[in-house]
Amino acid sequence: MDEEQHISVYRVIDGDHKLINFHVTTSLHEVVENGNGNYKTLVVESYTVDVPNDSNEKDTCLFANTIIELNLKNLAIVVEKMISGRKVNEERNST
């Protein structure tokens, strides 16, 4: 975790799964929205992963992309709740 540059790195190096040597870098970038002075945060995730012997590159990338997409959706939910002042473990429809 590099809090100054807003970068997080994690690795999955072992386990009973298809993501062998899975290395993910997440970075946050502040961008101005349409020149109106409002700022947004752009989240960029990149990864490398070894292709298992019993799989192929296409299937491995599809699986890894699915994991990344789920992680980003969960991150968005957490951030939206933080901004709205709700607790992270509260249901979305609670009042």
Automatic annotation (TrEMBL):
SUPFAM superfamilies: Bet v1-like. This is Bet v I/Major latex protein domain-containing protein. It comes from the Eukaryota. InterPro entries: START-like_dom_sf.
